[in-house]
Request: fold
Amino acid sequence: MADLLLRDTDADALAAMIAAAVADAVRPLLAESAEPRLVDRERMAALLSISVPKLDTMTAAGTIPSVSVGRRRLYQPAAVIDALSRD
Reply:
């Protein structure tokens, strides 16, 4: 196997190039697996592994944040998880 000579290579620049290449490769995978910004009651309950009535109780008590869009109650998963982790 040939030796790799990095004598004239700036280590910080090389590390930055590798980090950028990894980020570029991973970005599409993360985008595919990311939750939407707002989810409905059923999806939020499923994410928390609780029932929809329990989710409604927590929402009414102000334990978790939600927003109303027309007649729909929607949740931002990251904000809900943050609220629960503070308790």
User: Anything to note?
Assistant: The longest helix spans residues 11-33. The helical segments are 11-33, 41-48, 52-60, 77-86. The two ends are 56 Å apart (CA to CA).
